[in-house]
Design brief:
The chain is α+β, with helices and mostly antiparallel strands. It has two domains: 131 residues, Roll (PUA domain-like); 66 residues, His-Me finger endonuclease fold. The chain has a six-stranded mixed beta sheet with strand order 1-4-5-6-3-2. Strands 7-8 form a two-stranded antiparallel ribbon. It is globular, with a radius of gyration of 20 Å. Bound molecules: zinc ion (ZN). The site of zinc ion has 8 residues, from strand 8 and helix 4.
Length: 212
């Protein structure tokens, strides 16, 4: 959790993987991301999973939990007109984080969980028309995590044109501007930055075996 790393937004790194340290969730019906707050740091507590997640530091300033909580409350209580904006990344495997898009922080609660207080932050994807106005990437252009995992396995984690293993990007085979979708792995592939730039908006012919 990084509150206001940029002047206008914060960053959250989430994970729904088994064994992740926090239990983040996505409510598929409403697309709401329910992000769990962070435990007390190890230097302050020997068993962080048994004590309340902290709102403030020992010196009394707000923790990251506290900053996000205050921002969510301010919006809920209508003390501010606009919800706090958050850029979200999701861990899909060790060392690989995927961009999930911009979210609005709309609510926060403290839940009792096995006798201790745990923060839950509620975030909703920012509407496409708002993002277009702000020249940010809308939610429906984001490749879903499941598709990314499939593509990563299929393309074996390297550029499918030159085999490079660095500076990799997920790329739409049929560009979004020409009606390509992010929703199936057939239209997504891994390219390195060089090959991606070379492609620009042209449709490349890909050896058919790659998509069988
Ligand atoms: Zn390449």
């Amino acid at each position: 959790m990084n509150f206001n790393v940029k002047p206008n937004y914060s960053i959250l790194l989430m994970s729904v993987r088994k064994g992740a340290p926090y239990s983040d969730k996505i409510d598929r019906k409403t697309n709401t991301l329910i992000y769990e707050g962070h435990d007390s740091p190890r230097n302050l507590s020997n068993s962080p999973k048994e004590v309340d997640q902290p709102l403030t530091t020992p010196k009394g300033s707000l923790t990251e939990n506290g900053k996000f909580f205050t921002a969510a409350q301010a919006y809920k209580l209508k003390l501010t007109q606009h919800p706090h904006r958050v850029k979200v990344y999701e861990k899909i495997q060790n060392g690989i984080w995927c961009y999930k898009g911009f979210y609005n922080l709309i609510d926060a609660k403290i839940e009792r969980n096995s006798g201790r207080g745990v923060f839950k932050f509620y975030l909703q994807p920012v509407e496409i028309k708002t993002l277009k106005k702000e020249k940010l990437i809308p939610f429906n252009r984001i490749i879903p995590t499941q598709v990314k995992i499939e593509v990563w396995k299929r393309d074996e984690g390297h550029c499918i044109i030159c085999g490079a293993k660095q500076n990799l990007h997920y790329d739409h085979d049929l560009p979004f501007s020409k009606g390509g979708t992010s929703l199936t792995s057939q239209n997504v592939r891994i390219l390195c930055l060089k090959c991606n730039l070379r492609k620009s908006n042209k449709i490349l012919t890909i050896p058919p075996f790659l998509f069988t």
